[in-house]
């Protein structure tokens, strides 16, 4: 059995949970590689990544290269004398980096590969109405999320679960998967399965303003899935037209109402207690949302101070 000396690479909260599990299971962390600090917000205050914040609290060695091919960084990485690298929610690695450790470099991905390779697997699984997802560990190769799989773990997606809730569930599952993978590698028992390429493989495209916008001509279920798949971040959005106002609003939570009607698609029907938007096969009831210049609020809270006109609609 070979003692592991690990370099961990990651940036967001999802990676913090995994790094914490590795440390709690008494594995040696030679260093943590994370994104460079960046200014954020109006005051341009310097922001550390979630992984850096955690690494500082544990007094771990931290490297923050801007260029992963930089000779100084490569030399610093070699000096760490690690025999394994673990990658969780980081950027694509050059071959000189992922080939460096004797025992290889493995990645944890938040989907059941080969489906949902890419930047936003948690979001797209919900947006596409999947009822099952999971996590996969695999050895990195020269493409994105295509390497030989070590193991995977499955979980159900509940009908009204949002991306934030699924994120937390998959982080827990990811901890189990990474620790099991480390044990297999440590005992030299890791076997791999090649990913099979088919035309049916679904992709986890990068989220942008266009694919986060709601198309009200879609079915109630598709719209509801988009809203929960983008909640709480980056959030589904739409443009509200109300009298002479035109507002881009974010929608965090919705409910499907199966009810026949004769309204035009996008028409807003509001009462003192609820906001409904007409769609082809019923209504989407808005549960929580955000209008410009205000914090997130429930529909009831919004209706306390906001009146919709008779001709208000979304598009």
Task: Give a summary of the structure in a few sentences.
By secondary structure, this protein is α/β, with parallel strands linked by helices. α1 (13-24) links the parallel β1 (5-10) and β2 (28-33).
Task: Kindly describe this structure.
This protein has 315 residues and is an alpha/beta fold. The protein is built from eight helices and 18 strands. The longest helix is centred in the middle third of the chain and has 24 residues, at 163-186. The radius of gyration is 23 Å and the shape is elongated. The chain starts with a strand and ends with a strand.
Draw up the topology in text:
Elements (H helix, E strand, L loop, with lengths): L4 E6 L2 H12 L3 E6 L4 E3 L4 E3 L2 H8 L4 E2 L7 H9 L4 E5 L6 H4 L6 E5 L7 E2 L2 H7 L4 E8 L9 E8 L6 H24 L16 E2 L15 H10 L6 E7 L2 E13 L10 E3 L4 E5 L2 E9 L6 E2 H5 L9 E2 L1
Parallel strand pairs: 1-2, 1-6, 2-5, 6-7, 8-11
Antiparallel strand pairs: 3-4, 7-9, 9-10, 12-13, 12-18, 13-16, 14-15, 15-16, 16-17
Helix pairs in contact: 1-6, 5-7
